[in-house]
Every structure is written in structure tokens, then in C-alpha cells.
Design goal:
Elements lengths: L1 E5 L3 H11 L5 E6 L7 E3 L2 E4 L4 H7 L2 E5 L4 H11 L9 E2 L4 E2 L4 E2 L4 E2 L4 E2 L4 E2 L4 E2 L4 E2 L4 E2 L4 E2 L4 E2 L4 E2 L4 E2 L4 E2 L4 E2 L4 E2 L4 E2 L8 E3 L4 E4 L4
The protein binds acetyl coenzyme *A.
């Protein structure tokens, strides 16, 4: 599969590594609005994001949005206005994904991550390095599950929300949409949408999320 990455900074680099782990995939371009013109760099096409439409006409490629911010990733996906099947789903060769899990397009599963049976992961999510999504979890679109964090069984993790590094959500709990859970926190009761919660057990510290 030929792949165009949207974004050319830190998160895009990690996605490129995930793509390189699979010999059937090839990155053809990295597009980012920090570029004004289209040029070639070590065999890759680079240029502004609007160049994507030309590439989609010229080649049969798939697209992955490699932007770490959940809000900005969502804005770019909306701006691109492409059908869901234009986006790739990227799984690092050293991730473990149950054949009975469901992953939507645009989502990236990083090395060491485990996605267990009957988990359902939405569009354009980041399931980061060594994170665990246990059985029967539901993860909303544009969510980010950070390195070494854990959603235990049956958790419902909302759209656009960010689970900080090493944080844990205990079984069957719910986190609303566009909320932030601080690094190292433990969620033992429901967290509403659009809040920031931290600590063990996690408490809401701000009535604003992402
Ligand atoms: C590959 C990658 O890099 S993936 C990226 C992974 N990123 C992360 O895991 C980052 C997660 N972010 C955090 O944990 C941040 O601290 C946030 C978002 C929760 C809070 O950030 P801010 O909104 O800037 O809050 P701020 O730093 O002002 O802290 C507010 C209060 O919460 C406390 N606090 C902040 N984060 C935490 C935390 N993770 N656990 C416990 N307490 C915390 C602070 O000590 C402070 O307490 P005080 O008011 O008593 O002094």
C-alpha cells in the first residue's frame, strides 16, 4: 500500500516507523502546511497539504493524518473531506491486535500496544506505544491512549479524549468526550466530557478539556 502522511513532525515520524515495520507499505509523501512548495526530499514528496488532491488523482494511495493533537487532527480530517476508505489503518508489526477487535480507518496502533478481543476503536485514534485496550472497550474517534496506559475491560473512552501516559481506567468505567486524564492517574468513577482530571483516584481539576 502506498501511503501519504499528513504532518511532518514528531508524531508523523513515529507513524513513519510503524509504516516501515510492514514491508508491504511504502510512504510516498509527507505533506505539511509548513511547506509552501512541492519538492523531493530523499525520495519522498514533500509539500503543502493541498497537494494531497493531486496525489490522489495520480496514484492509488491511502492517507494517514500524523498530527498528535486530537483537535487539530480532527480539523484536518474535516478539511480534507475524504471518504473513510481513503484513510489507512496502520498497525506496527510488533503490536498485538485481536482478530476479533474492530479498528476504524485513520487509526494507528503503535509498537507493543495490545488491543484485545471485541474492543472497538474509532476513526483517527492514536493507540500509543505499549498501551493496552482490554476486551470489550469502546474508544471514540480522535481519542489518544498514551504510552503505557491501560483501558481495562469494558471501558467506554470518549471521542477526542486523551488518556495520559501510564494512566489506568478500571473496568466498565466511562470517560466522556474531549476530556484529558493526567499522566499516571487512575480513573475509578465516571469522568464527564470536557474536563481535566488527575490523580489517584482521579479528580476533576478543570472544567475544560481539549
Ligand atoms: C509519545 C508521547 O509523548 S504521548 C503524550 C503523553 N502525554 C501525557 O501523558 C501528558 C499528560 N498531561 C498531564 O498529565 C498534564 O499535567 C495535564 C494535562 C493533566 C495538566 O496540565 P495543565 O492543564 O497544564 O495543568 P497544570 O500543570 O497547571 O497542573 C494543575 C494542577 O494539577 C496537578 N497535576 C498536573 N498533572 C498531574 C498529574 N498527571 N497527576 C497529578 N497531578 C497533576 C499539578 O500539580 C497542579 O496542582 P496544583 O494546582 O496543586 O499546583
Amino acid at each position: 500500500m502506498l501511503i501519504v502522511i499528513i504532518g511532518d513532525s514528531g508524531h508523523a515520524k513515529v507513524i513513519a516507523d510503524c509504516i516501515h515495520s510492514n514491508p508491504e507499505h511504502e510512504i510516498i509523501a509527507k505533506l505539511d502546511d509548513k511547506y509552501n512548495v512541492v519538492f523531493e526530499d530523499e525520495g519522498l514528496i514533500k509539500g503543502p497539504i493541498e497537494h494531497l488532491h493531486t496525489l490522489l488523482q495520480q496514484t492509488q494511495c491511502k492517507v494517514i493524518v500524523g498530527i498528535g493533537s486530537n483537535r487539530i487532527r480532527q480539523k484536518i480530517v474535516e478539511r480534507l473531506n475524504l471518504s473513510a476508505d481513503t484513510f489507512a489503518t496502520i498497525i506496527h508489526q510488533h503490536a498485538i491486535v485481536s482478530p476479533l477487535a474492530t479498528l476504524a480507518s485513520g487509526t494507528v496502533i503503535m509498537p507493543g500496544a495490545v488491543v484485545n478481543v471485541d474492543a472497538i476503536i474509532g476513526r483517527h485514534c492514536i493507540i500509543n506505544t505499549n498501551s493496552v485496550i482490554e476486551h470489550d472497550c469502546i474508544v471514540g474517534d480522535f481519542a489518544h491512549i498514551s504510552p503505557n496506559s491501560t483501558l481495562t475491560g469494558g471501558v467506554c473512552f470518549g471521542k477526542g479524549s486523551h488518556l495520559g501516559a501510564t494512566a489506568t481506567v478500571i473496568p466498565m468505567q466511562k470517560v466522556g468526550d474531549w476530556s484529558i486524564i493526567g499522566a499516571g492517574s487512575v480513573i475509578i468513577s465516571e469522568i464527564n466530557s470536557n474536563v481535566t482530571a488527575v490523580g489517584i483516584p482521579a479528580k476533576v481539576i478543570k472544567r475544560e478539556g481539549l
